[in-house]
Design goal:
This protein is an alpha/beta fold. Helices cover about 45% and strands about 10% of the residues. Helix 1 packs parallel to helix 5, helix 5 runs antiparallel to helix 6 and helix 11 runs antiparallel to helix 12. The chain starts with a strand and ends in a 6-residue tail after the last helix. Keywords: Transcription, Transcription regulation.
């Protein structure tokens, strides 16, 4: 089946939001040489070249007025989404519903939201703009954590490289795992990071400590989630009193030792559930929870689901639209 992809271009677009997914869709043609599964077309409002936020000039194929919205409409992000051209928003409002599949990369979600195309749907965007998306369109259920979200025919993703992950997921859905794997190998990327993977790790979510002993301690926590990571044990490793350690850790990372450990353990458990067939009890021990019940409580509190259900959702196929 042929699924034409139309990419909207505008001044201030993020070039990687355009080129990343396009390389994936174009790669499907090499992986399935008997046909071109994703004919690609780029279009700007007036058909003239646009300047990306990095200064690169992109020449569209056609003006939007001449574009046919046949299957997938891809809306990239970039600085140009902050104060978009009203004519572009109106074009999306009018023509977006005609697409069988809407795909927004990064702050392209802001354009879809401005056009009313995300109302009543779950969506995401770059973590730094999730609050803005919520304020722009309260009718959108904004999830700031995943790298991409699929809600029916609408797919939204986090920043830049997440657009590649989403495109690979769509190719896998359309043409199977082997085709997506061939593209991923060619691009030297993961076959597909799961959509529910967090936009950034515990280490990135927290600030990096200025002092070397605390930086080393952050690394130790990440590499040894099953160790004794109580405040007392960590303080002894940092050669500080528990009280001094807790104050210093929070001052330098922006979070408490306990919350940092909780996030690392949850992240590690999620990765094991996603990437291995280890039993829940085995995962609980490896992630530092000790018991399956303790891990179940942590998942219920943070993710509103149980570990077994989390694994089932991860391994379930993407819903068809």
């Amino acid at each position: 089946m042929v699924r034409p992809v139309l990419v909207v271009l505008f001044d201030g677009v993020q070039s990687l939001d355009v080129s990343g997914p396009l390389e994936v869709f174009a790669g499907a043609g090499h992986a399935t040489p008997d046909h071109v599964p994703y004919p690609l077309t780029t279009a700007s409002l007036d058909g003239r070249p646009v300047r990306t936020q990095s200064g690169l000039r992109l020449a569209p194929d056609i003006p939007l007025a001449a574009a046919e919205v046949e299957h997938t409409l891809l809306v990239p992000g970039g600085e140009g989404t902050r104060h978009p051209d009203p004519a572009l928003v109106e074009w999306l409002r009018t023509h977006g519903p005609r697409a069988e599949r809407l795909m927004a990369v990064c702050t392209g979600s802001l354009l879809l939201a401005a056009a009313g195309l995300l109302d009543g749907r779950r969506a995401t965007t770059h973590w730094a703009f999730c609050d803005r998306l919520s304020r722009l369109r309260p009718a959108v259920e904004v999830d700031p954590d995943p790298i991409f979200v699929r809600d029916g025919p609408v797919a939204t993703s986090a920043g830049v490289t997440a657009g590649i992950d989403l495109a690979l997921a769509l190719v896998e859905e359309d043409h199977g795992r082997e085709t997506a794997l061939a593209i991923a190998r060619h691009l030297v990327v993961f076959l597909r990071r799961p959509g529910n993977q967090a936009q950034f790790s515990a280490q990135l979510a927290a600030q990096t400590a200025r002092r070397e002993p605390l930086r080393e301690l952050q690394q130790f926590i990440t590499e040894h989630p099953a160790a004794d990571l109580s405040v007392e044990a960590l303080a002894a490793r940092a050669r500080l009193s528990p009280r001094h350690f807790a104050r210093a850790f929070r001052a330098e990372t922006g979070t408490t030792p306990g919350r940092y450990v909780d996030r690392v353990r949850l992240e590690h458990a999620r990765r094991l559930l996603e990437d291995t067939t280890d039993g829940v009890q085995e995962v609980a021990r490896a992630a530092g929870y000790g018991t399956a019940e303790a891990m179940r409580r942590a998942f219920a509190k943070a993710l509103d689901t149980a570990p077994a259900e989390y694994r089932r959702r991860f391994h379930a196929p993407l819903p068809a639209h």
